[in-house]
Every structure is written in C-alpha cells, then in structure tokens.
Amino acid sequence: xxxxxxKAFASAVRHGSFRGAAEQLNYTTSxxxxxxxxxxxxxxxxxxxRSRRGVQLTADGEKLYPVIENFIRQExxxxxxAAEITGLTVGRVTIAAYPSICAAWLPxxxxxxxxxxPGVELHIDDSIRRYVLEALNAGRADVGFLADQHDFExxxxxxxxxxxxxxxxxxxxxxxxxxxxxxxxxxxPLIQSSYGKDKDLEAIFDRYGLRPNIVTTTRNSSTAAAxxxxxxxxxxxNELSTRMWSFDVKILPLDPPQYVSLGMGVSAxxxxxxxxxxxxxxxxxxxxEL
Length: 290
Description:
alpha/beta, 11 helices
C-alpha cells in the first residue's frame, strides 16, 4: 500500500471530510478523494459512505482503520529510529488525556518539551476516561494521562495523588461546612460528569458501599460545575478539574478524604517509538523536579 493513500484515508476519518483532510495534508480536496479512491480500488472494498455533509466509515472501513493507522505508525517508527541513530529525535506523539489535565498540566509540559525536541509533533485529544483508555489500548494514542484503575495494558507511571472534592453552590446547605460528608451522597442530588460513568467515583462509592443519588449527568465537568453553581446538586470531581473554572462555587474536601492516582500510560504499540520514549522520559523528569 502507498503511504500517501493511507494517510489521506486516515486523515479523512479524523476530520470526517476530504476537505478537512486536504487542509491538514496540504493537498487539494480532489487529490485526497483520488487517493482514497485508489486505496479502495487496491483493497477492493468501499471505505466511506460519501455525502454532502462529509464522509463516514463503512463497516469494512471501520475494520481496516486501526490496521491502516498501525501501518502508518510503523513507517513513522522507521524514520524516527533512523533519526535517533544519527542523533536526532523526530516523529509524532498522539496524546489522549482528561480535559482537566490538558488544561492544568499539558501547556507547560509541551512548552518545555518543544524547546528540547522541536522535531517532534504533538497531537492532543481531550476526552473522558473511557475514550482515553480505549484510544490507548487500541493504539490510536501513544500516551495517555488519566487516573489509575488497574485496567491499562501498557506501561504506567504515577505522577500525582490528586484529592477528590465536592463542588457546591454558594447558597447550598453544604457551603458552610469544612468538608462534604461522603454519606450524604445517598441523600443529596448529585451531578456527575463522564455521562455518569466516572470510574474514579465508582471506586470510591464501592469502597464505602454507597448508592449515590445521581440525578443529572453530563460529559463536560464545566457544565456540571455550572449546574452546581445554580444549586442543582453537588458535583464530586478531582481537584485538578476545578482549576479550569471561574464559577462562583464553594469547593470542599471530602470526609473522609479521597484521592485518585493520576499518571501517564504509554501504549504497548508505541513503547518502542523514539519520540514516545523521549516524551515519556521528559514527563517523568518534569514531575520529579516539581
């Protein structure tokens, strides 16, 4: 397979259109369309459903996408390793991370990393834990920043113990407390981000045998915080997330105190990449110096 065809296909998947792929690859839209058509002819399958709104993977395309992504990555590894032999570090690192980590940690990490390794491209995808973990285990992401729930298949490096906190409105009956009692989770209305599938919180609830009274769920923790500000319920979240906001809320520690292990996972499919190894090593050095 020609790499150009594969890259055009993969970029169209990520952007949902040939136009978006063309802008990323610095091609014309027609050129991207022709490359994808040539790949389909070579493989004897239809990869996309095409419409005026863009492109969507067919069932065959969904099966081939991770394989083609791996093909592209393996070729990149060849050039990365060759560059490493000559004393250079080049390549691409795809990072998947919680939005809170993207906002609180990554800007300074990336600024310093690029000063040392200007030849390495960094691509960032912020999402909830489920999608970060899926991207890592499937090899779509090289490095992930998330909480440790002992369900990751690659290398794991703990970076920080972050406290869980309760976010309440200034007029909430809990606003005058020094800490939010975990036992209240069964009685008071709770707002939960991650669509109510927060593994970090589920582990805490299970540990204490609690049945949380979750009444509202959302993907975005900022939306959840806005609801808490309006006294629609109590939001439990890691403290790192609260650094992103400017809401008029009260942030309380939990009673008893609870912490999550935040760290960095390196995909098994990417562990041999010189660029990924350089980034992983740099991040660990960065946190050791804090």
